[in-house]
Design goal:
Helices cover 80% and strands 0% of the residues. By secondary structure, it is mainly alpha-helical.
Length: 313
């Protein structure tokens, strides 16, 4: 049992940043699917593409005011989330991680929720709601994008500062933009489209995280791919308590509220939760993380100046 647990943990980015529901359910299930896929020669990207179809179909089934069909949709969305876990675990298991696989994975999740938002709106319109519900859905979709982008960004910042660059997937928009410009729409349409989406995604992250970006830039300039031990310890101490909030801003909590909305028939609950509670939490997380980044940057500059003076003496 412990040996199997160890194998599962080896396919995770970091147990420290994992959500509780992922640890007890999605990662074990994803691991089983990853092992089976490896034996059958299925690639991580194939799993990702399949998960997109499953997730989009699940969103369509939420259109129907039929509890049985809705439960099937919930089951499919849970399956899609397990597949989303499996593709990353398989990539780490087979050492086939790639930037485009990561981009495709994130883009696939967006397609799930676009399908969900559209079908929830159409279902509400069938019950007499006005077409202005689509405006609400767009606001929620933008909020969703920002919330997910920041949660992903800050978790990867944590991995960089605590474990080093090799465990993190932080990307800089300036580097991505160069790669985007080198691609041809005619010869590399799919890659260029995905890169355009990812560049925009990274712009969102950096726009809300200016102080964190400065901290990362300074650390990279003085110490390369690994933060100094003192900085790493300080970062962990200040930001570890925020991880639970990053996790709330991602998929699992959102899906639980969605399922409650579907099963109770009170569909506006999901949109209300998205636009209010999650946005308030986003504001809090950004404020705390940025203040911590500013404090750590100031301390690091002082320490570095002191060490430089000692060396010069």
């Amino acid at each position: 049992m412990s040996q199997n647990k160890s194998k599962i943990e080896s396919t995770l980015k970091s147990k420290e940043t994992e959500e509780f529901l992922d640890v007890i359910f999605y990662r074990p299930l994803g691991y089983l699917m990853a092992v089976a896929s490896k034996k059958m020669g299925i690639t991580p990207n194939c799993i990702t593409i399949f998960s997109i179809f499953v997730g989009v179909l699940a969103g369509h089934l939420f259109y129907y005011n039929d509890l049985t069909i809705n439960i099937v949709g919930i089951a499919l969305l849970i399956w899609a989330e397990a597949l989303d876990s499996a593709d990353g675990q398989l990539a780490r298991m087979t050492d086939t991680k790639s930037l485009y696989g990561r981009i495709l994975d994130g883009f696939g999740g967006n397609l799930w929720f676009i399908s969900i938002y559209i079908h929830l709106c159409l279902r509400l319109i069938n019950t007499g709601e006005s077409y202005t519900i689509f405006i609400v859905a767009v606001v929620c979709g933008i909020s969703h994008s920002l919330q997910s982008a920041i949660a992903d960004y800050y978790r990867n910042y944590y991995l960089f500062f605590v474990y080093g660059k090799s465990r993190s997937e932080i990307s800089k928009s300036q580097n991505l933009k160069k790669e985007y410009q080198e691609l041809s729409w005619r010869r590399n349409f799919a890659k260029k489209f995905l890169m355009r989406v990812y560049v925009n995604y990274t712009y969102e992250q950096e726009f809300l995280s200016a102080k964190s970006v400065r901290l990362l830039g300074y650390i990279s300039s003085i110490n390369g791919e690994q933060a100094p031990a003192k900085v790493s310890d300080e970062f962990r101490k200040k930001n570890k308590s925020l991880i639970k909030y990053y996790n709330i801003l991602t998929t699992n909590t959102r899906m639980i509220v969605l399922f409650i909305s579907i099963l109770t028939g009170y569909l506006p609950l999901y949109f209300i939760f998205e636009a209010t509670i999650l946005n308030f939490l986003l504001a809090y997380v950004v404020y705390k993380h940025e203040m911590n980044a500013e404090t750590i940057l100031f301390k690091t500059i002082i320490i570095n100046m002191g060490e430089t003076c000692i060396k010069e003496q």
